[in-house]
């Protein structure tokens, strides 16, 4: 028996939610930016151990500057959230604390992974300079373009859900 888990990716427009899913599911990256309208659902099975698999249903939601504008119906039945922001665009993480607190308040006991994507576009110094924002909330720094830590992100969340 394979457990099925709904994972919702949230964040601003253009932070790389679709790219992270494409990298994880198909191991590809495209420079072409296509806006997600509504929701796009992908699926991938993840082997947790020799006899445990989980089927991840990955909900790629359209980006919003305010998480409260996300359609509540898209969030029903969510087993885990991945909140993505763009490390190279401060406007995508200026309200990080508020956004994460909103999720924790309204979706108690639902794991949240906070991801700073596009680490290939910033220096280590940039990350250090923003440590006051990142240290309290960020679980992963990824690059969908390079594939850095993408597999690890999804597999860690999958393990946490079982």
Look up the CATH topology. Answer: Rossmann fold
CATH C-level label: Alpha Beta
Q: Assign a percent range to the helix content.
A: 25-40%
How do the helices and strands follow one another from N- to C-terminus? EHEEHEHEHHEH
- Beta-strand content estimate: 25-35%
Fourth-level CATH superfamily: P-loop containing nucleotide triphosphate hydrolases
CATH architecture: 3-Layer(aba) Sandwich
Radius of gyration: 15 Å
The helix tally amounts to 6
Q: What's the count of strands?
A: 6
Strand order of the largest sheet: 2-3-1-4-5-6
Uncertain regions spanning at least 5 consecutive residues:
none
User: Would you tell me the overall average pLDDT?
Assistant: 93
Number of domains: 1
Q: What class do helices, strands and sheet pairing give?
A: alpha/beta
List the defining traits of the structure above.
single chain, 162 residues, alpha/beta, Rossmann fold, six-stranded mixed β-sheet, 6 helices, 6 strands
């Amino acid at each position: 028996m394979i457990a099925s888990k709904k994972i919702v990716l949230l964040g601003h427009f253009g932070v790389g939610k679709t790219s992270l899913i494409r990298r994880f599911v198909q191991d590809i990256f495209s420079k072409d930016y296509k806006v997600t309208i509504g929701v796009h659902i992908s699926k991938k099975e993840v082997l947790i151990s020799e006899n445990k698999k989980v089927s991840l249903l990955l909900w790629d939601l359209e980006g919003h500057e305010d998480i409260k504008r996300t359609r509540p119906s898209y969030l029903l039945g969510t087993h885990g959230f991945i909140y993505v922001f763009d490390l190279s665009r401060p406007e995508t993480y200026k309200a990080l604390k508020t956004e994460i607190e909103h999720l924790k308040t309204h979706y108690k006991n639902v794991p949240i992974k906070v991801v700073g994507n596009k680490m290939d576009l910033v220096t280590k110094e940039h990350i250090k300079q923003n440590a006051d924002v990142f240290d309290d909330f960020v679980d992963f720094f990824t690059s969908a373009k390079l594939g850095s830590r993408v597999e690890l992100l999804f597999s860690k969340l999958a393990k946490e859900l079982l």
